[in-house]
Amino acid sequence: MSTLYADLQQSIRANGNPAQEGNASAQGHTEASTQGGGDSGDRPTPAEYCRMVPLLDAQTSCREVLELIKEQPDLPCVVIGGKEGEPFGLVMRDTFYRKLTGRFGADLYFGRPVEKFADMQPLIADIGADPGLLIQQALDRPESQFYDCVILTDHGQLAGVLTVLDLMIMSGLLQTGAEQRRRQTVAESFRHVTGMEESLQQVAEAANATLIECRQMKEWSLDGRSKLDEVSQSYSNVVERMNENQQQVARLIQDVDTISALTRTISELADKSNLLAMNASIEAAHAGEHGRGFQVVAAEVRSLAGQTRQLAADISGLLGSISRLAKETGALTTAGVGEITASAELLDEGSRMFGELEKAVEHVAGTGETVNRLAGDTAMRAAVIRQELEKGSSFA
Q1: Residue 124: how many other CB atoms lie within 10 Å
Q2: Phi, psi dihedrals of residue 120, rounded to the nearest 5°
Q3: Which uninterrupted H or E stretch holds 267?
Q4: What 3-state class would DSSP assign to 61?
Q5: Alpha carbons 56 and 75: distance in angstroms, whole number
Q6: Is CB count within 10 Å lower at the N or C end of the chain?
Q7: Could you give phi then psi for residue 246, rounded to 5 degrees?
Q8: What's the CA gap between 55 and 48, in Å, rounded?
Q9: How far apart (Å, rounded) are the C-alpha atoms in residues 247 and 253?
């Protein structure tokens, strides 16, 4: 028996059967995982299911291996390796039994080295390998090696093996974890989609309220613009009438000036008439008794000339007052026209601003309609997605 085999036997007697401990550990982990449903955040690792098996020298006889397997009936296999502990071959227990339990098996094989029965191209993986990748590599093996153990190494040395049962347990846990992650993802997606649907409904409601307000604002804008247009038209009419009044005042001033000129002429004629009447009175006085009647007429003419001059003076005074008032009215009219014109320009600017406001409100209303429609459509799609998530999940 080889030195490696003797050392292994001593270790087994001192510490117990490691293969049995590996089986118990795997079984306990399986039961806990089954009862607990698995933990989506705790992926199984090859180290958790690693079974310790003997590492034998390639020249160990088949008789020695058979005795070892009989002493440890739970050993799934033995590993063939070098002196440094590096594995390179695998002997499965069932295959080994079938060959040695034949009619002439003992006579033919007991004395031969175990490497004659070993698979010298086993699947060897690092103990820290990704479990999903390791399982896929095991599934990709030829059918003749499908039930063989997978050898695990740690820094190139034998760490243990994984049986097909261990791989199936790891695969089941991975699937359970993936299913739980899927359910968790679906649940999160369901919550997110539900929140999106509610938010989109709120957006649609807000957009609809904005649309209603925009329509109200549009009505107000149209009403305000209409009223401003009416006021602006009234201002235009007032300006037109005031311009006409200003022209009439100008003609009035011109007529007053003409009348004043005529009054001055009348006053001059009255002065001349008075002077002629005075001269006539003097001549009548020279005529004596014969000129008395003419003297009476001359006196009447002088009296009439004085009255005419007085009336001309009164008319001139009145015309001066009229002219002054007319000029003041013209100045006030001119100032009023300027103010009303400025106000009309402000009204035009206000009307233009109402027009711009109307365009802006129309743009906002159009945008609100688009947002409302898009939000409604998106909310409907979100509702469809939520329903599909409900159908495809167990929590629905």
Answers
A1: 17
A2: -90, 5
A3: helix 164-287
A4: strand
A5: 13
A6: C
A7: -65, -40
A8: 20
A9: 10
Cβ 325 vs Cβ 303: under 8 Å:
no
Structural tokens at position 95: 């295959």
Per-residue pLDDT tens for 224-258? 767 777 777 776 777 777 777 777 777 777 877 78
Return the amino acid letter for 116: K
**Alpha carbon separation from 15 to 10, 20, 254 (Å, rounded):** 9, 11, 140
pLDDT in tens, 36-92: 434 444 689 999 999 999 999 999 988 888 889 889 988 999 999 988 889 999 999
Q: Tokens 């695998």 appear where?
A: 90
pLDDT tens per residue across span 346-389: 667 777 776 777 777 777 777 777 777 777 777 777 777 767 76
Residue partners of 336: CB distance under 8 A and separation at least 6? 242
Structure tokens at 293: 């009647």
d(CA 195, CA 193): 5
Instruction: Indicate if the pLDDT at residue 121 is higher than 60.
Output: yes
- Tell how strand 55-56 and strand 77-81 pair up: parallel
Exposure of 6 by Cβ count < 10 A (0-12 exposed, 13-18 middle, 19+ buried)? exposed
Query: b/e string for 141-157 if b means 16 or more Cβ within 10 A?
Result: eeeebeebbbbbbeeee
- Residue-by-residue DSSP string for 227-255: HHHHHHHHHHHHHHHHHHHHHHHHHHHHH
How far is Cα 65 from Cα 4, in angstroms, rounded to an integer? 12
Rounded CA separation 127/155 (Å): 9
3-state secondary structure (DSSP) of residue 393: coil
218: phi then psi, degrees, rounded to nearest 5? -65, -45
